[in-house]
Amino acid sequence: MSDQDLTAKVPAADESARVENASTAVGRRSLLSGGAGRNLGLVIALVALCVVGVITAGDRFASVNNLLTILRLAAIIGVLSIGMTFVITGGGIDLSVGSVLGLASVWASTVATQTMANDTHWVVMVGVALLVGLGAGLVNGVLIAYGKVVAFIATLAMMVAARGLAEIIANRQTQIVKVQGFLDFFRADVLGIPTLVWIFVLVAVGAWILLNRTTFGRRTIAVGGNPEAARLAGINVKRHTTYLYALAGLAAGIAGVMMLGRTSAGSSTNGLYYELDAIAAVVVGGTLLAGGRGTIVGTVLGVLIFSTLTNVFTQNNLSISAQAVAKGVIIVVAVMLQQRIAERSRAST
Amino acid sequence: MVTDDPQTAGLLTMRGIVKQFPGARALDGVDLDIRAGEVHCLLGQNGAGKSTLIKVLAGAHQPDEGEILIDGRPVTITHPVAGLKLGIATMYQELDVVDGLSVAENVYLGHELATAGFSQRRAAIQHTRKLLARLGHSGISPRREVGTLSAAGKQIVSMARALSHDARVIVMDEPSAVLDSEEVANLFRVVRDLTAEGVAVVYISHRLEEIRQIGDRITVLKDGRTVASGLAVADTPTAELIRLMTGRNVEYAIPRRPPVADDAPTLVHVENLGLRGSFSDVSFDVRAGEVVGLAGLVGSGRSEILETVFGARKATSGRVEIGGTALRPGSVPEAVRAGIGLCPEERKSQGLLLDEPVYRNITLTSFSRTARAGFLDEAGEKREAGAQISALDVRPADGDRHARTLSGGNQQKVLLARWLVHGCRVLLLDEPTRGVDVGARAEIYALIAELAARGTAVVVVSSEIEEVLGLADRVLVVSEGRVVHEGPTSQIDEHRVLDLVMEGSAA
User: Fold this and answer.
1) Total structural domains in chain A?
2) Is the ipTM, as predicted for this complex, more than 0.85?
3) Is residue A41 part of a domain?
4) Nearest to B396 among A19, A233, A235 (CB)
5) Does residue A37 lie within any of the structural domains?
6) Which CATH number belongs to the domain containing residue A194 in this structure?
7) DSSP string, B299-321
8) Domain that holds residue A104
9) How many contacts, defined by CB atoms under 8 Å, are there between A and B?
10) Minimum-distance CB partner of B248 among A7, A214, A217
11) B287: nearest Cα among B310, B261, B306
């Protein structure tokens, strides 16, 4: 009896020591690589960029006006990127968002300028853009989830087709929106902050809640992390995948409206290559390209880093080509750092 | 220093191996000595350090302390290729073959026969044919695409690759886990041939009875240390091995249960269920509180039957009724709503979100129900998961850890906990103890018995006939997609089941 007690106790103490060791390691790791730590890295990068901006461009950079310019620049890509965050977290990819943005803006501006001319209510315009985005996203989702087309291919096809359809509708002409209520809405600001930026903020807050606090978000992570496990746990993976692409399409529709509001021009070239900027922002922000982990805060920071970079380069009269090179470098460095962190956390398990 | 006596001189010796990972000391002084021509079994519970040890041996991990001697000379194995050059080949549990390449290309993967960059396909095919013949499998064509082979066939390819490196030590990590009994017998024959040629085999398995059949000597690991080495298989009783592995005396026995009450209602009614290309005409009933076992070989259709009942595969014929209500074929959500739960065969790929916290894995089925108006109630989830973590003694008892960090047995408990939190009246268990160590195994048996006692209808699939017969009230023997026998487990023994399984596959 006493003998048994001994053998039972010794390993137990041993075990608890091991567990304790492991849990302190987990604590340390989460500071470095957990949500807060990762975002801290992005904040540091953003601050560094701002310091460079202040040093090289001085007051031209560090003015309220310029800050708002950066935010306005970030807003449209930001909304696209947030939609993309859901798709990528759910284990997919959407190459069509830039084209869908273009299609939505063209379709809405056509409705406004041709069908009913200037008395078109702006609600109709906005509604058309959102429906076009949602519809394109649903087509993507159904093709991928039920048609079993690989996401890369299905959305590549949508990218090409939506751009083509936009050109057909616009007849290769730029249409100027003159709906006064609509234009006034986007020229206004609330508390000194432009409408565009407010939309971005609202979308971001809503998305954060959706991803982190709702069953929709939990399903997204489950479907992206292990679709088979999610399916066998009773989650309707196909339906949820469809929703994710529909959501990205809806975000592209919103971005299309924002584009119309900012430029008042519906052009089939609106949003050209934006899908690449959005994917870059999402990945730099720390969302796993393989799915199963996503961060809205990271995406927002990623978008801000890129738009600040663009601004700093513009302030210093550097070419767009030079910007592109710098963007490429940032993407590679960020992804390599992430992998390093992921490996470290895997090795310690 | 080292004796020259070939009887005692080790072919390969590891001394005082220490491997430290951030946060955990995976190996804490391991000794292992392997002689030429022996089958050396490595025993230990999950987490004892077996996997880390063979990775050190293969050169995939570098030890922090300790030495490795080959033929008495110290060596450092800096990377896997160095290990192969020293004659150490490893067959990992997840077979590392490339499905899209041919058998010959797989055998010579990484050391292709080539002249000036042009591959010598003919030579590779000839050599591969010889290696396959040596392994007694000249039936496999070297040109065949590996993806078309069964798990057993892939294992032979993996073994041929080891031989192509002139391996003197072949490490086999749970080679029998994916094999049926006939294939295991064949594996043992190959192992005996290899050892007769002087090759040493390091054999890892959870199945003690296999070690009895094939092993010469045993080294037991526990908590990263060698607790016994060089035990002769013939002289070491099983109870002693279990005591060494667990540090306590475990009842390996399956708990006895009272017979199912005569008035227990039928919960599951499966009628002429079929899935084209897999199984057909499967009918059975399960009553509340009853455990029904499905015995059969891998590929007999037993897992497919479970998955079809659950709706994860869409039945092409027949019907499933739960509590008198027919289920729509091919709908997992409907099956879950009807109160069925499935613990799938492949825990990691089919069951778990490995990089999510344990508590979220436990509530994966129930979080929608806990939520209010679509908003998660994480505190409630943690509470419910925590209750199951302590009830099932999941170790470590920390719901915030990632599922990846748990041992096989504890991962299985997490999956069981998922259905307990959700609450289900029918539980389908596919290989519930595969890769589960002895201690956790006994706990899982006890849990199954307890669930049945509370009125849950349980269906268990297992490759271990002993386990099926021990757990179940009734057994269905499945062979080639058909039920060839159904009856109470009290009226059939292991040999008869084995006969039925074989008969069916011969037909």
Assistant:
1) 1
2) no
3) no
4) A19
5) no
6) 1.10.3470
7) TSSHHHHHHHHTTSS--SEEEEE
8) 46-348
9) 116
10) A7
11) B261
